[in-house]
Write a structure and sequence with these properties.
This protein is an alpha+beta fold and about 60 residues long. The chain is about 40% helix and about 15% strand. A hairpin with a 5-residue loop joins β1 and β2. It is elongated. It starts with 7 loop residues before the first helix and ends with a helix. Pfam families: Ribosomal_L35p (PF01632).
Amino acid sequence: MPKMKTKTAAAKRVRLTATGKVMHAGSGMRHNLEHKSARKRRALKRDDVLQTAQAKKMKGLLG
């Protein structure tokens, strides 16, 4: 049986940590940044951990 291919659309959006968590970039950092406080922009810059159910699906897509 051939190897499973990685879904490249999923690979572009998430990354796996060494401990197996699935990290993703949050929304809200594309435009209208001048109206957001510096504190808010710093908070939005960080990557977030996906919830358990979504992380399980994404790991399946990553192969």
